[in-house]
């Protein structure tokens, strides 16, 4: 996990809390229609995702800061925009001993259902939506494809979310969640199809949020 990603996560969390505490305490009964969450998450790619240039690949994920904004339609239904301000590095290990890496930056929009009432000490929620994850900075050992460039297409598809919020105050809360991103990336060597990776990662994270 990279240090600058952790700094981004901590900065986002610290920025949210003062904004929430600054609100008038007399507005406790006012419906809060927006929330923001800053946090940190670790991406865990699927085991045995496929092959690149004829070689079976194994992937190791890393972590990054996360940020989300949510519009609460009512006390239960919501629409969330979620993503990573920083890119997540994925390490690639191939069966022939070759190594590589690439970076990806997911963004997603989801509909959510929050169980119970906002005043509950803890409140689970589920979500379902659509995501895309921009991939760039692909780098591989020259021996993997004879020195030719290996590129990966943008994975996209459904995203499912399971999480829970834990109230700290009327406005400030902590969050833990897990997101499953279903999608694959076609691999190309010098522009020619050369395999496919079923990434299908889990993204597990924690954060601090505020309601407005």
Description:
The chain is mainly beta. It has one domain (3-21, 31-211): Porin, CATH 2.40.160.20. The protein contains 1 helix and 14 strands. An 8-stranded antiparallel β-barrel has the order 1-4-5-7-8-10-11-14. Strand 4 and strand 5 (77-83) form a beta hairpin. The longest helix has 19 residues, at 3-21.
Instruction: Return the string of H and E elements.
Output: HEEEEEEEEEEEEEE
Number of helices: 1
Q: Would you report the number of β strands? A: 14
Sheet with the most strands: spatial strand order: 1-4-5-7-8-10-11-14
- CATH-defined topology: Porin
Multimerization state: single chain
Write the layout of secondary structure elements.
Layout lengths: L2 H19 L12 E11 L5 E3 L2 E6 L2 E10 L4 E7 L4 E7 L4 E16 L7 E19 L9 E3 L3 E12 L4 E10 L2 E6 L2 E7 L3 E10 L1
Antiparallel strand pairs: 1-4, 1-14, 2-3, 2-13, 3-6, 4-5, 5-7, 6-7, 7-8, 8-10, 9-12, 10-11, 11-14, 12-13
């Amino acid at each position: 996990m990279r240090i600058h990603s952790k700094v981004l996560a901590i900065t986002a969390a610290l920025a949210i809390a003062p904004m929430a505490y600054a609100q008038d305490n007399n507005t406790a009964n006012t419906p809060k229609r927006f929330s923001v969450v800053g946090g940190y998450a670790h991406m865990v790619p699927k085991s045995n995702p496929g092959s690149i240039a004829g070689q079976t690949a194994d992937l190791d994920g890393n972590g990054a800061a996360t940020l989300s904004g949510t519009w609460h339609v009512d006390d239960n239904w919501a629409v969330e925009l979620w993503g990573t301000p920083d890119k997540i590095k994925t390490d690639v290990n191939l069966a022939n001993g070759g190594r590589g890496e690439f970076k990806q930056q997911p963004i997603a929009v989801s509909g959510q259902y929050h169980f119970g009432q906002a005043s509950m000490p803890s409140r689970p929620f589920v979500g379902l939506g659509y995501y895309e994850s921009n991939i760039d900075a692909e780098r591989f050992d020259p021996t993997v494809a004879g020195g030719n460039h290996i590129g990966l297409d943008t994975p996209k598809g459904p995203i499912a979310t399971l999480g829970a919020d834990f109230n700290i105050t009327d406005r400030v809360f902590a969050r833990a969640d897990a997101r499953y991103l279903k999608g694959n990336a076609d691999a190309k060597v010098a522009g020619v199809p050369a395999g496919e990776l079923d990434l299908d990662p889990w993204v597990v994270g924690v954060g601090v949020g505020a309601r407005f």
